[in-house]
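Hi again,

Forgot to attach this to my earlier email, sorry! This is the prediction with NAI bound. I've pasted everything inline since the attachment limit keeps bouncing my files.
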Amino acid sequence: MNTKVLIKKNQGKSVNTPVKVAVAMGDGIGPEIMKATLRIMEAAGANIQPDFIELGEKVYLSGNTSGIDTNAWEAINNNKLIFKAPITTPQGKGYKSLNVTLRKSLGLFANVRPVSALHPYVPTNFPDMDVVIIRENEEDLYAGIEHRQTQDVVQCLKLITRPGCERIVRYAFEYAKAFGRKKVTCMVKDNIMKLTDGLFHQVFKEISQEYPEIENETQIIDIGSARLAAKPENYDVVVTANLYGDIISDIAAEIGGSVGMAGSANIGRNVAMFEAIHGSAPDIAGQGIANPSGLINAAVAMLAHIGQPEVGDKIKNAWLTTLEQGFHTADIHREGVSAQKVNTQEFADKVIGNLDQLPEKLPISTLANGKGIVHIPDYVRKQQEKELVGVDVFLDWQGKDPNELGDALSEIGVYRLKLKMITNRGVKVYPKGLKETYCTDHWRCRFVGVEAKIDRAEPEYAPIEFEQVVALLSKLNYLGYDVIKTENLYKFDGKRGFSLGQGE
Ligand code: NAI
Ligand code: MG
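Structure tokens for the complex follow:
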């Protein structure tokens, strides 16, 4: 499998080989803004070869609930690059989100959203903001593994993997290097989620060592997002897990004032997709007045990704110049700031006319000043010794008093597998719980291996055989306990692979 994400891959190659791109014209305003953007790219000398594909509304309404047909899949597989105008998801149930389908099937692990202020042409309180949010896109709570376990309790599995963390964190540093950014900030909540967010943070610490030229810092997500909202100019590249990234990328776009003008990229190991953040704007479709800026910015990011950052800079600087000159589409037109209201194609014409210009007030785009190519190496799994030392048995138990359950379970240990504690919603309620703790019908009962000889430093969490777990479950079942699930407790190279209960 090709696990290299190559940008600037045309460097050194003949400039005559155009990069093939699957282009979706989209729905609503999609075709209008795509046409404008393709015209600008062509005028700027972008060396691409569009392969037009049909995605979205038409495909949905033809009875295909995924919104994408086999021809489009084929084109995507051939081209490895998607440039997509917004599409309309028809109202009504049964239509699957095309973006989710693409992201999942193509393994698009990174969502990249640059937000920079365009003050005073687009109002914002943060004129110096220039942030890129890099969000992990495949894991975390978004794996969608949810279960109802008792009358009162539902759960959602948060999955964080080492290869997933390594990929996204390395992508963030490689992105910073390739595009001349100075700092990467990691946001996690590992003071609470010591294993999942702890792994993300650990991987960040490891990988940041390989990039001494790039500053790194880690912030707890709650205070981190508050500071991002208050002082976005202090941030450069931010890398974070899926849910946090979902939230802070919206915060960043909102305070940057340019939601309507931002592009986003979804990067995979083999395929990458570029699009505007906004939707198909059916309310203004067909009028020719839509702002193509979001798609133009997506095009700039795509050109940088495929090794044509100079063309990306050229377009971006022409676009910034056009904004400075006051040629504004209706959505951003303001008396006193704008010089002239222009429609979609007029705006594109102005950008084309400015292709050799640099902005005077807004920061000049310098994508081409970065160094190197984005390179994500294959993941290599390190073998560790895995030892079973206990089991968490989750019971649906309708009783009230934890002591009643705890005393009963203490009687039914199997060989060296003994009850250590019971928690309810993570809080220890046995032995010696607090009366005040509210208990639901969802009880986590931790049985651990206990060393025969108690003189060992840590008599508990001693190795056991899985047979003992099976025997325990069988016994519990025989005695009428409602076992809803189990989680094995492992040590990896002697290190605890599970969290302790609160109060354990
Ligand atoms: P929207 O972003 O299409 O529109 C929100 C508001 O912003 C509207 O008033 C619209 O006129 C305005 N607007 C958006 N883009 C503009 C532009 N380029 N120039 C000027 N004004 C612009 O969001 P909405 O209305 O929630 O969704 C409409 C459709 O778009 C839905 O079918 C939705 O599913 C789809 N959508 C597709 C996305 C994609 O393909 N990536 C992303 C978001 C929504
Ligand atoms: Mg979101």
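The domain at 386-496 is CATH 3.30.70.1570 (Alpha-Beta Plaits). Residues 162-178 form the longest helix (17 residues).

That should be everything now.

G.
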